[in-house]
Specification:
heterodimer; A: mainly alpha; two-stranded antiparallel ribbon; B: mainly alpha; 12 helices; 1% strand
């Protein structure tokens, strides 16, 4: 008797129970925490050595027998759902209170519990129909979380776009599961490697799950949804919701027979997502939109690792595939943790200042030291810097790539390109997060709101501290996380027991630990040395200028200017300048009454340049077709007659031909 | 016992030797210009003086202003300790240590840029923006160079990667890595460490508001990084494996000296480039490393 089953029953029970206590925030929170803790316990048991949990229910739902299964791969994702779900629930107590949001707070709690449940069911479902039902519930749940604040037009629009994009994805999934069920005669899901004719279905899965994961260029819904949702919902969306797309891809990449090109296409998608995701992030001046584009980047890194795992699988399960896959799976956790941390940090800033525009902030560290320190840690982690967790997963992916290079053959050329672009992505992310954290937290306040900011309460800081601690723990003790990742990777291929931790991972953890301890010691030592001598405070040196103002500081736009210039052709940044017409050879017309300003805006290029025009064409055709419907009965009768005649002609032709 | 002695010797070497390099560079520059120039040991005097001095701190600076240089120094020192020292080998060698080295240098960059942004000065903002932007191109070159070495040796650990003799690709690799060395250490033609015109600098402008012990730490870290890159370049190109211990040490020291003199000569003979040409030069460095990689690739297949 394993504890997995009872723990999952407790998790389900408390999640359902929580829905009954929507009006009582503390009781709701307690139940959600019990549920997520129980779910986490079940996952930990499976991941660190326990057997997979399998429950043939014995009764039917929607005409299909219930069959649930929690193996290593599901448990890896479910653990993330539990951690971020629990942290976000605590955070919402301070961030989205009943006092401040009397109309939407309890609704938020309802959809929060609903989406956690739906994601749990997606992860344990082994029946296609049940998977689809849970998937739809999960899409709706995230829609209602995005539009929690219905009074804001931008949130409503983001929700609408999300719903439309998600349903395009769901349509692909209906196609996928429908064809599977028709071919196999059952909705039961499982490995079907023996049916090579099903391989093209993988492309359907790629589009369906790729839209959810937010891989470039399928990410059109992501920036506005993550930017406009309440911050705890953004943390869940970015940390967990898009990972469901990754789960689907990995799961069906393991079960379905994959086409030969699958690994290449996924790696290419990953490379494009990684580089362009961070390039678009650099162009953003809205803190939450910037973080949203970084989700695209990190999904890219995960896809690079997964793509190479597929390439390795097609080459007889080469050993480097395991490293790449382990890196990708660990990055699923890591990105979930540090991105949730960063979104919660951005939420604290928003809560304290009401401002998302980075150039209206600045100098917040003085008022919000905890938020600043935690955000800085998240920034270092997402930039892939040692000794934090982002580095460990990128390091594993790198090792896989280097081994793939040594293996020679066509895939090693892909590995060379991937390794170089992964390095570029890391350097770009570093630039982007130096910009974001420095402009928001350092220097002088650029607005009155930033000057009057206040630190968040412990309900908001507590979850951030917990997430930061997990980021540091995985970075400093990567060996402890390895068994979970190896177990999930082993369950993905179904090939035997989990691999032992590579010896170098232990050494890497040791190095990280030493760097962390020595770094802290050196900082303390230097601070003491500085304080021991004569320490004088003075204003920042401004080239002798007498009256420096906060507006003279470097802004987000100016900091990123060099790099966004390189990506000009893709980002399509447009500038607005007042007074107009400045530039070499064109003196500005200065109007004393109008303060001069320079602003730039980077729109969502795929949405505005590709999807938008395509949608307009569809709309025009549809409007043209509408003139067929005008309410005149004789004309309708004529349509019916014409239709009948057409049918008769087809039948007649068919008779002649056969 | 031997291990701990060796460890202390290494730490001592990395602590004491680096400030010599900027002194040599300045000597070469003075010699070319026909001046007498500052003593070779000038940086040692400067560091000792700065360490004893008081600090002027910007009103806006957070504790990160002091912690940044300290962590950056530790990161560079950590990267330096990972580097094998010719016949001494490396202190700690494992698969993938080269990636840790590259990312420790990135950590140092993050901390330096962070500390620069602390003061809210637009000059330092400029410097930090340039530093992190040009590093993108430098990073691509470094990863490509690492790939070239890795393909050639069939290994992902620094000690093994440095062993085999490079063929004709060595010249390309040396040229590429030397350019990256100039860019990453903020030397002419990317940056001018001697100038005092803030608008045109990268590294120097990032540390404008630092003074006293933190500035000493920054300067020492910068010289350590220069020595690290010089050692990396020499060992990547010159095979030291077959030589006896004294010969190998002599070749290594001679190589580092040659690189340092080369930096000085470049600095004397070239003017700083306009900023819009910097990406072009870095792209050239990347291409040189890429061709070195292709040569290594072909050599392995033949």
């Amino acid at each position: 008797m394993t504890p997995t089953g009872p723990l999952l029953v407790i998790a389900l029970g408390s999640a359902l129970g929580a829905a009954a206590f929507l009006r009582f925030p503390r009781a709701w929170l307690a139940l959600v925490l019990v549920g997520t803790a129980a779910g986490l316990g079940a996952c930990a048991f499976v991941l660190w050595g326990g057997p997979a949990w399998d429950w043939p229910g014995g009764f039917e739902v929607a005409g299909q027998p219930v069959h649930l299964r929690l193996d290593g791969l599901s448990a890896l994702f479910l653990a993330l759902v539990c951690v971020v779900g629990g942290a976000g629930a605590v955070y919402s107590m301070g961030y989205w209170t009943d006092a401040a949001h009397p109309r939407s707070a309890s609704r938020g709690r309802l959809w929060w519990s609903e989406i956690l449940l739906a994601m749990g069911f997606i992860l344990v479902a082994t029946n296609g129909l049940h998977f689809l039902i849970a998937w739809e519930g999960f899409v709706l749940g995230s829609f209602f979380l995005i539009t929690l604040d219905q009074s804001r037009r931008e949130a409503r629009q983001a929700g609408w776009l999300y719903l439309a994009a998600s349903h395009v994805g769901t349509l692909c999934l209906f196609g996928l599961f429908g064809v599977l069920a028709a071919r196999l005669g059952t909705w039961e899901l499982g490995p079907v490697r023996g049916h090579p004719e099903l391989a093209p279905l993988f492309w359907l899965a790629l589009i369906g799950f790729g839209i959810k994961a937010g891989a470039f260029p399928l990410h059109i819904w992501l920036p506005s949804a993550h930017g406009s949702a309440p911050s705890h919902a953004s943390a869940l969306l970015s940390g967990v919701v898009i990972k469901m797309g990754i789960y689907g891809l990995i799961r069906f990449g393991g079960w379905l027979p994959v086409p030969a090109a699958a690994g290449w296409v996924i790696t290419a998608l990953g490379l494009v997502s990684a580089v362009l995701g961070v390039a678009f992030a650099l162009g953003q001046h809205d803190l939450k939109r910037l973080l949203a584009y970084h989700s695209v980047e990190n999904i890219g890194i995960i896809l690079i690792g997964f793509g190479f795992a597929l390439v390795a699988a097609s080459r007889g399960h080469a050993a480097w595939g395991l490293l790449a896959m382990a890196g990708a799976l660990l990055h699923v956790w890591n990105h979930g943790l540090f991105k949730a941390l960063l979104f919660l940090g951005a939420g604290s800033v928003l809560h304290a200042t009401g401002c998302r525009r980075m150039s209206g902030l600045g100098g917040l560290w003085r008022r919000m030291p905890w938020t600043a320190a935690l955000f800085a840690l998240g920034a270092a982690a997402i930039s892939g810097l040692p000794p934090l967790n982002g580095f460990v997963s990128e390091w594993l992916v790198y090792l896989g790539l280097f081994d793939a290079v040594h293996a020679r053959g066509a895939s090693s050329l892909l590995a060379v390109v991937s390794a170089i672009l992964l390095g570029v992505t890391g350097a770009l992310a570093l630039a982007c997060f130096t910009k974001a954290s420095a402009v928001v937290f350092l220097g002088a306040a650029r607005s009155e709101a930033a000057r009057r900011a206040h630190e968040s309460g412990w309900a908001m800081l507590g979850p951030m501290v917990a997430l930061a601690a997990l980021c540091a723990a995985i970075g400093l003790f990567p060996v402890l996380a390895w068994p979970a990742v190896a177990r999930a990777a082993a369950d993905w291929t179904g090939a035997g027991p989990a691999a032992a931790a590579p010896a170098e991972l232990r050494t890497l953890g040791l190095c990280s630990l030493v760097v962390a301890i020595l770094g802290a010691a050196a900082a303390a030592l230097l601070w003491r040395r500085t304080a021991a001598g004569s320490l004088r405070r003075a204003s920042t040196w401004c080239c002798g200028y007498a009256e420096p103002t906060a507006r003279m500081q470097y802004t987000a736009g100016s900091f990123a200017g060099i790099i966004t210039g390189w990506f000009e052709g893709v980002l399509l940044t447009h500038r607005t300048q007042v007074p107009a017409g400045q530039g070499p050879g064109r003196a500005p017309i200065v109007d004393e009454g109008v303060p001069s300003s320079l602003d730039d805006h980077t729109p969502e290029a795929v949405l505005e340049r590709v999807v938008g025009p395509a949608a307009r064409v569809v709309m025009r055709v549809a409007l043209g077709a509408r003139s067929l419907q005008h309410g005149r009965l004789p004309a309708y009768l004529l349509y019916v007659l014409a239709g009948l005649a057409g049918l008769a002609a087809i039948i007649f032709l068919a008779c002649i031909l056969t | 016992m031997m291990a701990s002695v060796e460890f202390i010797v290494r730490i001592g070497l990395w602590f004491l030797l680096p400030p010599l390099l900027p002194g040599i560079v300045n000597r070469v520059k003075a010699w070319v210009a026909g001046r007498r120039g500052p003593p070779v040991l000038q940086l040692y005097y400067d560091l000792a003086r700065l360490w004893r001095k008081g600090v002027v701190l910007s009103d806006l600076a957070s504790p990160g202003f002091i912690a940044g240089p300290a962590v950056a120094w530790v990161a560079v020192a950590g990267a330096a300790l990972l580097l094998p020292l010719g016949p001494l080998g490396s202190l700690l060698s494992f698969r993938g240590d080269v990636i840790l080295l590259v990312y420790l240098l990135a950590l140092a960059r993050f901390c330096t840029a962070w500390a620069a942004m602390e003061t809210g000065s637009s000059f330092e903002g400029m410097g930090a923006a340039r530093e992190v932007s040009y590093a993108v191109l430098a990073e691509a070159s470094v990863i490509t160079a690492v790939l070239a070495l890795s393909v050639q040796s069939g290994s992902v650990s620094l000690a093994r990667m440095m062993e085999p003799a490079v063929g004709s690709g060595g010249v390309l690799l040396a040229a590429g890595l030397f350019t990256v060395l100039l860019a990453e250490n903020c030397r002419v033609p990317f940056d001018d460490p001697a100038t005092h015109l803030e608008l045109t600098m990268i590294h120097e402008v990032m540390v404008l508001d630092h003074s006293g012990p933190p500035l000493a730490v920054i300067l020492h870290g910068a010289s350590m990084k220069l020595l690290l890159y010089a050692l990396l370049l020499v060992q990547a190109v010159v095979p030291l494996g077959g030589l006896s211990f004294p010969a190998a040490v002599a070749v290594l020291a001679g190589g580092v000296l040659a690189v340092t003199v080369g930096v000085g000569l470049v600095e004397s003979l070239l003017a700083r480039f306009a900023f819009r040409r910097v990406p072009l030069l870095l792209t050239t460095a990347f291409l040189l490393c890429l061709f070195a990689l292709l040569v290594a690739w072909n050599g392995g297949a033949a």
